[in-house]
Amino acid sequence: MKLAIFGSGKIVQEFLAITKDLPEIQLKAIMGTKRSQEKTEKIQAEYKIEASYTDIDECLKSDAFDTVYVAVPNHLHYSFAKKALEAGKHVICEKPFTLKAAELLDLEQLALEKDLVLVEAITNQYLKNFQGIKEAVKKIGTLKIIECNYSQYSSRYDAFKEGTILPAFNPKMGGGALMDINIYNIHLVVGLLGKPERVQYYANIERDIDTSGMLLLDYGNVKVVCIGAKDSEATIRSTIQGTEGSVIVNGPTNTLDSYSTQPLAGDIETFDHKDHLHRMFDEFKLFNQVIEDKDMTFVKKQLDHSKIVMEIVEAAINDAGIVLG
Quick one: which of 73, 77, 254, 318 has the most CB atoms within 10 Å? Predict the structure, then answer.
């Protein structure tokens, strides 16, 4: 993979820290804003990235890379991914894929028409612990209840309460608890159960954005609650309950630190299948192979997953009366 990175924020620096363990990924370019040019050029020098840009159109004229990693603020995902696809580049897009389900459908159509890889960088779907969780769930009888709680007091919440609206809490930029952290819970559940029958979102709204909320997903005989909070904290874990036992996911749903199985009669066992400590390693290792193989069957399967997630998100946002973008 010959890669260009759009963005210079925290997630980009997290990714760049593991590229030493992914020699198959060649860092060809990084693009940031003119305002962040000094920061972008510092990152370029530190990680020996071949070129840096402050203009997307100028960047996309380059033939030095074949793939773009879109890691800009949420509200820019759609427009930046579309420009990259139009320029004939494969796209790896950070979560949430887009702010609206229709935008993702538009990107999908463009990518498939051009025979380009388009995937969402959503860590939990590619972690080895997730594969283990899926197998463990098959052994706890008939599923009944799933509860996911990812609640983490935001370092930006105090400033938000005082009137400083940073991207994490800005509705115009696709902020809020649902889009930021609860979306990992949604991906986990969709990866296990697929599309729900009904969606409801009970959100705490401040300054027109959800600072926390409970998302209810109805799968008929299985009831799911996804809790995401940026204005309060609790033990971060998820519990999957069946008629013959339960599976406990230890830690946030974006890292799946480990999981435990607890049969109705028997001892608790804890498992951790990670080969690499960083949550982003497995997804980018696989994305590189998908692009190398032009595995469009994989692409279509993952897009179907992402479309379900976006439909849930859109239904939840509408249910809570939140206006994004």
Answer: 77
**Statement to judge: residues 68 and 101 lie in one domain:** yes
Helices (H), 97-225: 101-113, 128-137, 157-161, 177, 183-193
> Is the pTM here over 0.85, yes or no?
yes
Task: Give me the half-sphere count of Cα atoms (radius 13 Å) on the Cβ side of residue 298.
Answer: 18
Q: Are residues 205 and 96 in the same domain?
A: no
Kindly state the helix (H) or strand (E) to which residue 317 belongs, with its residue range. helix 296-320
Q: Map residue 196 onto helix, strand or coil.
A: coil
Domain count, the chain: 2
Q: pLDDT tens digits for 139-182?
A: 999 999 999 999 999 999 999 999 999 999 999 999 999 999 99
Q: CB of 129 within 8 A of CB of 274? A: yes
Q: What is the Cα–Cα distance from 48 to 28, expressed in whole angstroms?
A: 9
Residue 10 corresponds to which tokens in the numbers above?
A: 């925290």
Q: Same domain for 129 and 269?
A: yes
Could you tell me if 2 and 65 are in contact, meaning their C-beta atoms sit under 8 angstroms apart? yes
Among residues 110, 4, 118, the alpha carbon closest in space to that of 57 is found at 4
Give residue-wise pLDDT tens across range 273-305: 998 999 999 999 999 999 999 999 999 999 999
CATH number of the CATH domain containing 48: 3.40.50.720
